[in-house]
Design goal:
It contains three helices and two strands, in the order H-E-E-H-H. The chain has helices at about 15-20, 45-50, 60-75; strands spanning about 30-35, 35-40. A hairpin with a 2-residue loop joins strand 1 (about 30-35) and strand 2 (about 35-40).
Length: about 80
């Protein structure tokens, strides 16, 4: 049975990784619901599907966008 290390790391059993299609170097996501942790392998490029409808505003530079985000965050802080 796997144990949690002092650094809160967990070693998954090899047979479970094979069944889940998890390989060394894969990125995984974890979620907590009802006191249980679920670990899933991150699908490469999975975000593209949910972001496909977004279009960049070519008139806004990266620096302007970053500055706007910083200012917006400062305004929200108490």
């Amino acid at each position: 049975m796997p144990r949690i290390s002092a650094k809160r790391q967990l070693t998954l059993p090899a047979h479970q990784c094979r069944l889940a299609g998890i390989k060394p170097g894969d990125e995984c996501r974890s979620f907590v619901a009802d006191g249980r942790i679920t670990i899933i392998r991150q699908q490469p490029g999975s975000a593209w599907g949910c972001l496909a409808h977004l279009r960049a505003d070519e008139t806004v530079s990266d620096a302007d966008s970053r500055q706007h985000s910083i200012e917006t965050r400062r305004e929200r802080q108490p």
